[in-house]
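Incident review: delayed structure delivery

Summary: a single-chain prediction request sat in the queue longer than the usual turnaround. Root cause was a stuck worker, restarted by the on-call engineer. No data loss occurred. The affected request and its eventual output are reproduced below so the record is complete for anyone auditing the incident later.

Affected input:
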Amino acid sequence: MVRFRQLFTHLRAWFAITSIMTLVNGGPAIAQEPSIENASAAVQPAILWCQYVGTQGPGVGKHIVLISGDEEYRSEETMPMLGQLLAKRYGFKCTVLFAIDPDSGEINPDNQNNIPGIEMLDNADLVILGLRYRQLPDDQMKHFVDYVDSYKPIVAYRTSTHAFAYDKDSTSPYKKYGNRQKEPWKGGFGQKYLGDTWIAHHGHHAVESTLAVHEKSNAAHPVLKGVDTIWGPTDVYAIKHLPDSATVLMRGTVLAGMNPDDKPVAGQKNDPMMPVAWTMVQESPNGAQRRVFCTTMGAATDFVDEDLRRLVVNASFWCLQMEGQISNKANVDFVSAFNPTDFGFHGFRKGVKPSDHQVDISDQ
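Output delivered after worker restart:
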């Protein structure tokens, strides 16, 4: 009983402090949950996501939710970087979600079944996806499905073409989102909503890198404004189901090595070149239109190239129907240090919590 009273006292104090800070600051800086386990020791909240709130720029008043969760390409490192950039440089409110180990509260992209905070999609204006083979519980997945069904815009990269995968014996009502599905959606969420699903590595994985070049017929598209060629160490994906309604923006030259000055591979791999970035406009049954951007580039190491960051920033503006505010050459300078980990399975940084990515962007 004494222990319970002490715990209650600590929690009451925490909520009181939180309320005062809310009044002083005009609102909480980040969404938080109290940690019962740690309350009696340090009165610390458990932060299961991070949030950056911009105060100046065309994005003020718009909420972008960036969802990481892939085992190979380090989206858990990329999304905080992009969230900081979009908030600091352009004024958006950016919430970054992660795959979380429910026991430790640490970021664990190998956990395919838990993305806390996904309910924040309910009031999002745009989602940016970096997912691979997730099988979320139905109560979490419902928020994602509701967002998709609302025909709000989507920006997606790399493995998001195969964002979900369900076990054969799954009884989930959302099983059709899995990329291995044949009915009722062949190719699942990726093929239905992003233009294609996972097929194969077109370039030799970890041997042949990618140089993305403009599709000349669409070089004037606003998403390409200020964007030059893009080099990334990840390989070109095979794309075979892209609908005729898609607008291809860039194609991927398969290079013979892992350096930007390597020569293109001779032969059929580059004839024709695969699409690596495209847009689509989708119409709902009631006539609402959704803008979609997808690129098959997007390892954390790919984002070292400022033109890939610029491509995604421009795409975010375009998807939000704000293309008139795309800069001639968007500022995509890093807000805080970005030192990406190489891609590869089981290579994520251990022991990292969402709070480790929380920075005060006003000080940067």
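Verification: The first strand starts at residue 33 and ends at 34.
Action items: add queue-age alerting; document worker restart procedure.
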